Amino acid sequence: MTAQRSPEDTPLDELLVGSLEHWEQAPPHEMFRKLRSECPVHRTSEILEFPEEDGFWSVTKADHVHEVSMDWRTYSSATGVTALTNAVMPVELVSAMFIGMDPPKHDRLKALFQRGFTPKRIAEHEDEIRQITVEVLDRLGDRETCDLVEDVAQPVVSRVIGSFMGIPPEDDVVWARLMNNALGAGDRAPGTEAAPLIMQEDVPEIFRRCQALIAERRENPTDDLTSVLVHAEVDGESLEEHEIVMGFFLLMAAGNDSTKATYASGMLALIENPDERRRVLDDPSLIPSAVEESLRMFPAFAHFRRTATRDTELGGQTIREGEKVVMWYVSSNRDEDRFEDPDRFDVTRTTDHQAFGAGGRHFCLGAALARLELRILFEETLKRYPGMALAGEAEYVGSPFTNQLRHLPVRLRA
Predict the structure, then answer these.
(1) Which residues in 213-352 belong to E strands, given as ranges?
(2) Rounded to an integer, what distance in angstroms lies between the CA atom of residue 40 and that of residue 203?
(3) Tens of pLDDT along 58-109?
(4) Residue 100 in contact with residue 249, Cβ under 8 Å?
(5) Number of C-beta neighbours around residue 218 at 10 A
(6) Model-level pTM greater than 0.90?
(7) How far apart are CA 74 and CA 309, in angstroms?
């Protein structure tokens, strides 16, 4: 094994981008700045915490990420979608989700979900999502402090995705625990000790609960997304049980993590940049722009991955068939060639970002829902607590995949 030093002091040919020690205190932006400048397509030889896993190529600039995203024939999703192929969840399960498929099956399966996620259908849920958000904020009552992740973000996103999937409110807490653990953002830290427990305990419980819900929807169909999966047909054939379960898992995972992550980090940015917060408070029409800037600077997922289907070249590097290609959105969204002063939080910025992917077949299905949730969360939080301040140190999950805060203690009123 290669002994790790700080990213800045490590020769590029020895740098291990995915090593957990680089991710303990937020994404390693200095490391990615160095890579974008000196080696935008970089080879990591091994993953220290998971020695059985192969190394990978890191793609760090926006144009290269876009190129990989658009070319599914060269860069496949069918053999894994994160830097880890089998270490946490077997690739056979991941490949049962449309995010782990290539066309044409990906397109046919994604189309089933698309019906429930059109901008028009999502907009119809605005009042319901606002009511959920207001009720969660009401629970804070006269408290002076709270954890913005645990007390606001998590219960809101759990109830929103739960309502879409047909999960009763009393099950929100257990589903949040299971999904956080499965994605490395929960009590089971993203290391070698956690991986077996996730597969032995959390994933089987997810499957048991999901299968019970599936059986119920077979007997009593409703208009929720679980019923859509249970009764859907692709090319005249119903989905197999494991495809329904993994489709359910995908929607729950994305709904649980994405909005929670970006909302908490965006609120932290507003607290730490009082001039930008004042601009939003003085002109609430800037909130959608603040949402986009939060998505750019704090994408919920640090990376997704493809696998080369043939020998190819990217950024001057030769990538061999079968090698992993990791697209780092936490880097591409701060690409100096795409964004002026990319590390500055600017609520008036208008440049497009790659938080939902960089185009192509796998562009995020839930982008409209995430944007709506984030807008409502920012609107209601800022309206109620315009003087919110930090009440302690923000704690990061410390994962190369889930880019989010674990805790954000705040003082609600100035």
Answers:
(1) 233-234, 237-238, 303-308, 312-314, 317-319, 324-328
(2) 36
(3) 999 999 999 999 999 999 999 999 999 987 778 888 888 889 999 998 998 8
(4) no
(5) 12
(6) yes
(7) 5
